[in-house]
Amino acid sequence: MADRKPEENGVSGKPKQLMMADFDPPKPPKRNKYAFACAMLASMTSILLGYDIGVMSGAQIYIKKDFNCTDVQIEVLVGILNVYSLVGSAAAGKTSDMIGRRYTIVLAGAIFFIGAILMGFATNYAFLMVGRFVAGIGVGYALMIAPVYTAEVSPASARGFLTSFPEVFINAGILLGYVSNFAFSKLPLHLGWRFMLGIGAIPSIFLAFGVLGMPESPRWLVMQGRLGDAKIVLDKTSDSLEESKLRLADIKEAAGIPEDCNDDIVQVPKRTADEAIWKELLLHPTPTVRHILMCGVGIHFFQQASGIDAVVLYSTKIFEKAGIERDTPKLLATIAVGFVKTIFILVATFFLDKVGRRPLLLSSVAGMIVSLMGLAFGLTIIEHSDQKIMWAVALCIATVLTYVAFFSIGMGPITWVYSSEIFPLRLRAQGCSIGVAMNRVVSRSWRLCSFTPCSLKHMVETLRKLSNYSGPFLGGDQDR
Fold it and tell me: Could you say which DSSP state residue 121 is in?
């Protein structure tokens, strides 16, 4: 034993030579494929809202012709979804705490399926509104539950990337809606819009069955006292066992479970009841919770106050005001909007964790402001001209495309990422439901008053009167 070489005893007589690899930065953990698949399946519920927004932008043209609807009826039909989705998102927080995140996603798909079928078979305006109500409830459920579930299953290293998925699928749904408009626009009038709306039932079927293969949220499992099941899910969705233990400890602390309690089934203290959570959020919030609530709700307000839903929903009307009169070119232009929106949201998902939330958000807002100013300028020029001005038409199309592109790189995905990350675990479901409620209320207001045909006309008229300009490039005749 005495003649064993020093190296064999773990002691070397020579200093260890450092290799170049020793100076390399540590490699980031590999992307957790299981968490990735779970986040993708859950986020696919957001495709329901996107499809409805996209398909309604074109279907409203044919619904108006088929049912001889007024502009006001069409505006109500289009915008009322946000009132209904507000009800769904408000109920989703309580529902998800009762039956779990996974089955709430299934419920959202089932409700939207029924709504899409009812809209597809609608024989009159009232019947169509009933289908719109049911679909809106499903959309509200989907909007609230997707970011919550995704945030609760995502590892810390990829949470920003994965929680941006709901916005990715909203954009994918919008693009599918635009494609559906174009694909069925050549059918007879009474069939085309019904296929456009009814075909939305198909994604919800695949969604409901796909979600059944997902695990339940580890946070919900802990809240039910199922620590053993939660640990299994956390081990699968974490980058390491150490991270899994840390995540479990954080959830146990939020649920009021002692740290040294490691039984598979435990009794959860009643202090985490839903009433206590609402009181902590709204009635007696601490300064920290109040600040978090203001930030979480505020970012949802400003996302919709930017007018994105109005621009997307009334894109056909905007292009019509810009001088594109035939239905087919208008629908092709909306497909371009959906394509650009989807491409740039995919770009944003890969930069969220690298560049950071704040730089992307500031760049997004600046680009949106410039784009909307350009759109307003182009529409004003066209409105006051006796002949078609091609550069103004091109400017309107380009600014709509740049507007949705800038929205997609920042304001779109970061809203959902930020609101799902900022709330503490015990307040996350209810906090996110308040944020989604604000999102839908503001969206409803903008849809009805921002870019409707009447509003565009009033906007241009107001700009004309304020400018009091009668020069040749505005048409010359001030009283025309």
Answer: T
295 SS3 class: helix
Task: Write out pLDDT tens, residues 73-95.
Answer: 888 887 787 788 878 877 887 78
Q: Can you tell me the distance from the alpha carbon of 150 to that of 2, in angstroms, rounded to the nearest whole number?
A: 60
Neighbour tally for 174: CB within 10 Å: 30
Burial 243-254 (b: 16+ CB within 10 A, else e): bbeebbeebbeb
Q: 452 or 165, which is more confident?
A: 165
User: 111 with 443: CB under 8 angstroms?
Assistant: no
Residue 12: Cβ within 10 Å count: 11
pLDDT digits (tens, 9 = 90+) for 269-289: 665 455 667 777 887 888 888
Q: Pull the structure tokens for residue 350.
A: 């890969």
Q: 17: which DSSP letter?
A: P
Burial bucket for residue 5 (CB in 10 Å: 0-12, 13-18, 19+): exposed
Q: Is 265 helix (H, G, I), strand (E, B) or coil?
A: strand
In degrees and rounded to multiples of 5, residue 230 shows phi and psi of -65, -40
Residue 336, judged by CB atoms within 10 A of its CB (0-12, 13-18, 19+), counts as middle
Report CA-CA distances (Å) from 189 to 65, 103, 183, 327: 8, 38, 13, 13
